[in-house]
Specification:
One of its GO terms (molecular function) is kinase activity. This is Uridine kinase. The protein is an alpha/beta fold. It has 8 helices and 11 strands. Strands 1-11-10-9-2-8-3 form a 7-stranded mixed beta sheet.
Amino acid sequence: MRYRPISPEVLAAELAERVAALPHRRLAIAVDGADGATDTAGLADALVDPLRLSGRAAVRVPASGFLRPASLRFEHGKRNPDARYTDWLDLGALRREVLDPLGADGSGEVLPALWDTERDRATRLARVPVPEGGVVLVDGEFLLGAGLAFDLVVHLWLSPAALRRRLPADDAWALPAYERYESEVDPSLLADVTVRVDDPRHPAVYEPQPD
């Protein structure tokens, strides 16, 4: 694999340019990566201002706002890696409240978060209108391979050693979930843009080589 070194600032600028060049309609962009080990939120946040400067209004929607209630997430225990991989994120709610409204027949209004995991109750937030040409930036983990209708996906990839090193000690139990994701989905190849972030200060963009 060939990776092109890039600064975080130039990475955000290049990604914003790529998104701005997409068709002028409502778009859903995903920033995918292991929670706690990659800064998906930081990259999504860094895209907001460049997109607005290019004429694309941007709305942030963390996938963590669409986790299932604790009674469902922890049905098999709080440290079950298979449950974290398949059961924590409410895919149906994310489609219904965020992705479907962006479609041609959608309302154009998205819900920025559905569930407050700290209080374990509904957020009751108001819907946010997304203008024509606007962009919804969704960040989180395990966003690929589930049939979510994103227009572009950026995957933040870590080598296995870097993942073990950077994952918080309290989340080490989740390593089998990330290994399963790599094995079953291969997000580095499925994503539109893959960025190696073993050292977050010095990311590198994967550049496929011609056959």
